[in-house]
Amino acid sequence: MTSQTLPESPSPRPPAFRGRAFKALALTPEMPLADWFAGLDAALRRSPTLFDGRAVILDLAALQPEPEALRTILSDLRQRRIRILGLEGVDPGDDGLPPLLLNGRPTQNLDLPALPPAEPETTSLTIEGSVRSGQSIVHRTGDVTVMGSVSSGAEILAGGSIHIYGALRGRAIAGAARNPRARICCRKFEPELLGIDRLVRTAEDMGSHLRGRPAQIWLDGGAIRMASLD
Questions:
Q1: Which domains does the chain have, with CATH numbers?
Q2: What separation in angstroms does the CA of 160 have from each of 54, 64, 71, 117, 190?
Q3: 224, 217 contact by CB (below 8 A)
Q4: Burial of 150 by CB count in 10 Å (0-12 exposed, 13-18 middle, 19+ buried)?
Q5: Residue 147 DSSP one-character state
Q6: Residue of 56, 88, 193, 221 with fewest CB within 10 Å of its CB?
Q7: What is the pLDDT of residues 121-169, one digit of tens each?
Q8: Strand, coil or helix: what is 36?
Q9: Conformation bin of residue 151: beta by default, left when phi > 0, alpha when psi is -120 to 50
Q10: Burial of 106 by CB count in 10 Å (0-12 exposed, 13-18 middle, 19+ buried)?
Q11: Which stretches make up the Septum formation inhibitor MinC C-terminal domain (predicted)?
Q12: By percentage, how much of the chain surpasses pLDDT 70?
């Protein structure tokens, strides 16, 4: 019998390994962590999609957290929908954590959009008793309620409406925070001056048909209107 030599199987070809370079955002937690996360939350309020579709690296060289603390940081980031591609500056020491990345090079900082100014907090002010002559009450962030009267020579200025359960004999300016929907209401109508938003009327321009009666004052069509509350 003649022996035959089988052809050798071709050696398997190694897979092709191709490099890829991606831009990544680097987060660098700092102590105290509560303040750092508060700053991160402020950035997310300015730009809620800041981390969407981005590779994020966690630089821990300055913090050097213990394994349990590192897990807590990663959990807090996941709750904010921030997924970490890898770690820098610390040995994960655990197969369940993101891998260690080396030789990263810094690039330019990412500029965030400006946070719009916060709206002033709206509050109400209640004056127990009366406002005497010469007193000036200024409350630009809400309504003012006077349980007594406003004497001649006294002044109330409110960002919202003004409610007076006694006589209005002094000056009352409502809507000082550019609020044309503000109103002035009083139990006894005897004012020296009225104002809503940027419009004012003096006693000489009001007539006498409401004098001594409950009244309300408001804006309508860019003019001050007055009517009885009886």
A1: 24-88 (no CATH), 124-228 (2.160.20.70)
A2: 46, 53, 50, 20, 21
A3: yes
A4: buried
A5: S
A6: 221
A7: 678 999 999 999 999 999 999 999 999 999 999 999 999 999 999 999 9
A8: helix
A9: beta
A10: exposed
A11: 127-225
A12: 81
CA-to-CA separations, 225 to 182, 218, 220, 228, in angstroms, rounded:
12, 5, 6, 11
* pLDDT range class, residue 100, cuts 50, 70, 90: confident
Q: How does strand 215-220 pair with strand 223-228?
A: antiparallel
Question: How many Cα atoms are found within 13 Å in the side-chain-facing hemisphere of 104?
Answer: 22
Which tokens hold the place of 35?
């303040």
Using the structure block, give the residue that is written with the tokens 């981005």.
54
Task: Write the CB contacts of 189 (distance below 8 Å, at least 6 apart in sequence).
Answer: 168, 210, 211, 212, 213, 214, 215, 226
Element (H, E) at 223: strand 223-228
Distance CA 216, CA 192 (A): 15
Contacts for 193 with CB less than 8 Å, ≥ 6 apart? 171, 172, 173, 200, 201, 202, 203
CB 99 within 8 A of CB 118: no
Give the containing element (helix H, strand E) for 44: helix 33-46
pTM (two decimals): 0.51
Give the span between the Cα atoms of 174 and 182, in whole angstroms. 6
Ordered DSSP codes for 13-26: PPPP-------EEE
